[in-house]
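Regression check, fe (ii) ion case 285:
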Amino acid sequence: MHAQTFLKRLDSIPDLPTLPNIVTKVNNLLQDPDTSIKKLGDTVETDQAMVTKILRLVNSTFYGFRSKIRNIPHAIIILGFNNVRNALVSVSIIKTFSEKRAFKGFEIKDFWRHSVAVAVTSRYLGEQSRLDSPDDCFVAGLLHDIGKLVLSQYFTESFGQVWKSVKGNGLSFYEAEKKLLPVSHAQIGGHLAKKWQFPVSLIDSITYHHAIRKGVSNLNQLLIVHAANTIVNNYKGDLGMRPDFSMIDPEAKRIMSGQLENLSEWFPDVAAEIESACEFFLKEE
Ligand SMILES: [Fe+2]
Ligand SMILES: [Fe+2]
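Current build output:
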C-alpha cells in the first residue's frame, strides 16, 4: 500500500476521533484578533466539566501560581489566551483518546506516560533554552506520538505487525514501522493534526520528530520535541549512567548544548515534575 492510499484510508474512517466541539470553537475564536476575554471565557464555560479540569490544572503545582485562579477569564488574564487553549487541548485529547481500547499488550496508560514525560521535558527545554514558548512545546511533546494511538486503534493489523517486530527483533517502533508500513506514526499523527486544524508548527513537530526537516515553520520547536523524546527514551534516571546522545540531531545538540551538557543535574527535578503531571493528567475520574 502506498502512503497516499494509507492516508486516504485514514480519512475515510467514520469514527476517527474528532476534537471536542469546544476545542474547535476556541481555536476559531483565537484566530480572530478581536476576540475578547469575556467571549472566550463564555465559550469555555459552556462546558462545565472542562472548566473544572482546566481550573484544577492551572491551580495545580504544575503551574506553580501562588494565588488561586478562580475562573476562566482570570486564567486567561494570568496565563494568556494561548496557554488556556493549550490546557484545553491537552485535557481533551487525552480524554478523547483514552476512551477507545487500544491493541492488546499496548497500554494506553504507558503511552500517555511517555507522552507526558516528553511534554514536560519539552516544556523544560523550551523554557531554559528560550528557543520557543514552553507551553507550545508542552503540547507538541504531548501529541508527538499520537499517530501510534491511531495505528493501534484503527489499523490493528498493521500495528500488530510492527509490534511483533519490535518485541521480536528488538527494533525501535520507528525502525520496525519503516520496514513494514508505507507511512510512519509521525506522518499519521501529522495528518490528523492537520485535519484538526492545529497550528502549522505543531503539525510539523509531530510529522518530523524522527526525521528532522530543516525547512519547517518552527525548527526550534521540532528540535526540542525531538531532543526531549530521545532523552526520555534513553535516560532512565540512572544518575551514574551517561545518556546516549548519538541519536540526537547535531543541530539540536548545537542549539541546546547548555541544557544537554548538564542533563544529569536537572533531569531528576524534571522527572519529579513528570510524576506529578502524570498524576494530574492520567488520573481516572
Ligand atoms: Fe515517535
Ligand atoms: Fe515518542
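Comparison notes: The radius of gyration is 19 Å. Residues 114, 118, 144-145, 229 surround fe (ii) ion (ligand 2) (CB under 6 Å). No diff flagged against the previous build.
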